[in-house]
Amino acid sequence: MLLPNYFLADLPAEAELSPTMITEACQTLRRNREAYLLPRSTESIIELLCGVAENWLHPEYPFRKLALEQGPNATGFSCETLAAGLDRFFKRFTPQAFRNLLVQELGHELRLEKILSTANEEKESRGAIVSAPELLVHIAAGNLPNPAFMSLALGLLTRSAQFMKCATGASFLPRLFAHSIYDEDRKIGSCIELAEWCGGNIPLEEALFVEADCVTATGNDETLAAIRQRIPSRTRFVGYGHRVSFGYVTKEALSGFNAKKVIARAATDVIAWNQLGCLSPHVIYVEPGGIHDAEPFAELLAQELAARERSEPRGQLPAADAAAIASRRAFYEVRAAHSPETRFWRSENSTAWTVVYESDPRFQLSCLNRFVYVKPAADLKTTLENADAFRGKISTVGIAASEARSRELAVQLARWGVTRVCPLGQMQDPPLAWRHDGRPAIGDLILWTDWENE
Amino acid sequence: MSSELSVFAARLRDFIGIASTDSLYLDPADDLALRQHLDIEFNGMAIVLFGLQFLRNPAYRKFCEARRVTPNSITHWKQIPAVPTVAFKEWELTSLSPEERVAVFHSSGTTEQRPSRHFHSTESIALYEASLWPWFEQNVRLATNDLRLMILTPRSKEAPNSSLVHMFETIRSRVNAPESVFVGMIGTDGGWTLDFSAATKMIADSAASKQPVFVLGTAFSFVHLIDHLTEQNLRFELSAGSRVMETGGYKGRSRVMPKTELHALISKKLGIPNENIVCEYGMSELSSQAYEIRNPQSAIRNFQFPPWARVQVISPETGAEVNDGETGILRIFDLANVFSVMAIQTEDLAIRRGDGFELLGRAERSEPRGCSLMVK
What we know:
Strand order of the largest sheet of chain B: 5-4-8-9-10-11-12
Largest sheet of chain B: 7 strands, mixed
Distance between the termini of chain A: 60 Å
Strand content of chain A: 15-25%
CATH architecture of the largest domain in chain A: 3-Layer(aba) Sandwich
Number of helices of chain A: 16
Oligomer: heterodimer
CATH architecture of the largest domain in chain B: 3-Layer(aba) Sandwich
Mean pLDDT of chain A: 95
Order of helices and strands of chain A: HHHHHHEEHEHHEHEHEEHEHHEEEHEHEE
Distance between the termini of chain B: 44 Å
Order of helices and strands of chain B: HHHHEHEEHEHEEEHEHEHEEEEEEEH
CATH class of the largest domain in chain A: Alpha Beta
Radius of gyration of chain A: 23 Å
Low-confidence stretches of chain B: 368-376
Strand order of the largest sheet of chain A: 9-10-11-8-7-12-13
CATH topology of the largest domain in chain A: Aldehyde Dehydrogenase, Chain A, domain 1
Number of domains of chain B: 2
Helix content of chain B: 25-40%
Structural class of chain A: alpha/beta
Helix content of chain A: 40-55%
Number of strands of chain A: 14
CATH superfamily of the largest domain in chain A: Aldehyde Dehydrogenase, Chain A, domain 1
Radius of gyration of chain B: 21 Å
Number of strands of chain B: 16
CATH topology of the largest domain in chain B: Rossmann fold
Structural class of chain B: alpha/beta
Number of domains of chain A: 2
């Protein structure tokens, strides 16, 4: 299958973009939105998005096939990792999930269309309607496609025209997703533009920002600060900074019956998107007193990763990333040679996976690509003290615990600043209505108009 | 001090002497037999040194034992376990007793990192100098008359833990150049900066009196110098015979500039043609250096160590040596590291080019830190 030349990101690599091209693209987007997107009902957009998602889950869908054929080369993920990641993502797209999201964010699923009142608002003789930005600009980061897919889906839901700027070399999957929307409904597809350039291209970005009504950006804190500075004051800015995550296994969860399942779930979180997302664990903490302490847990996790490498291989890495793993392994090899407090397990003849056990409980950043630390956790309070340097930067904690214990831990984690607590094994699989970085998914984009009746 | 290691050091000096004969490099084809002899000799000496270091360096021995490699199990220098440079931060990788140590060279870097520590005795320093000088002389052909040295680092007394400064001091003391200046200073943040007025005066005076200048410094100090000359709108034509020796590395001390751009700017601002700019590669954990050697036929410049040090470019995936033209991480076997560890695994990415290498840069820092997220 050959993709039609439709988006700026489809242009050959040597084609140079100009600020005029960006301005014109934005103006076209606004016109198309006015003509094609604005008149559409929320329900019809939900139907479109769910239809596209259903296609993506079908093995013979041409865009999926293309993603799996060319994806390993374009993204570095193996075919199996891509397939698993795409499946996890598109399964979330159900009409009910979208309606729930709208109710969660706006109090009513039709709030984007008309003035509505909740029961309490009704009592006070008032209602409200929300308006979305006309042109929504996304500065997408490069690691994995989910955030870009989700941004585009939310933008369509709010019926905004959208311009997505992808990082260099990272437009392949967002492009396929945008083409799949275009293929399903050309008029709606014409309200999306995608382009790829190296961030910090001032002339192009100035042309883009001046047209935007709202800019969302994903990236490290420096990138976000630099973008924020260059956005006109009247334009809303929503930044998603770099976050890290960890797993927490309670002693009760490591019972004889359950232990194997917990280890498999930890492996799932390490393998998903090769651990590259903000929601992937750097460290798995293990409470003592279960059937396995942290050290044997690490060894079993290594065995599980070895087995899973056969069914869901990591894929090839650029030399620099492989070198980062090799160097980090060398460091732990020296440590392990000198002290039983450190042990490590690694794939043979490849950098496919690495597990480092350290008795030192301090939180540690991994070099990712399936390189995970396992550390003992005396209890959650101590663990959080050991992660204090990262307070405010932790996105997700994946927990293996009974429901009652999980609820109790979630409150502790919430008070400390963690924004998502989920079962281990689902860290890279948040629900559609997930509040990214603890912020409302749609609420940050829109504007409310309150209507007060006599 | 271990007398066996001292005997080895004496033997190595002989080897350096033989291997440093001019003819070997002027026309390699003439002396194939000598090269083969050096290969055999290198292998024999590496195996002997490994055996001694296994015995005399407890931290290294533990590492080898964890790898299940002992002196009895190897027959070739490529089988000798290479310690990662980060190990110099964690352990005292030395066979020198605390009383024997007269100097310690630290890796440069940002202040929040622990530095590598390479300990030296009077004897090991002497060997370091014996190793650096002949290979420097071979690769940086200096004018013999009226030469001045301008060194863009602080002096040794201000930076006693810098192997680079020690190297520059050694060169200064051996080059016949009475009019030499160190124009580097320690800045208020503890990093290196330049005395711009002293540097500019040296350049201007030399250009006026037509005396050749040999400028030595790190890449970032050259960027500082070039930026200053640009700000002041200054440009000089240093006389023929002037040379630049630039050693890579920025360490966050200036903006990073591609090498070709930096060299073009040096040529433009100082009037020193590209062919007279020499790049050096070294590190505090080593006792020998590599120089970028120009192949007159292909114009390709590759780094080459002297015959008493060898490199391998290793696949990060498999740990095996990559094929010619492929990328991997650099491993160095430096016989002059007699009293520490000969086999060093760096974190530098390189392309294998024959028995030399093309340097690509450093892989992500391997040593994990508590709060890099905050620092970034």
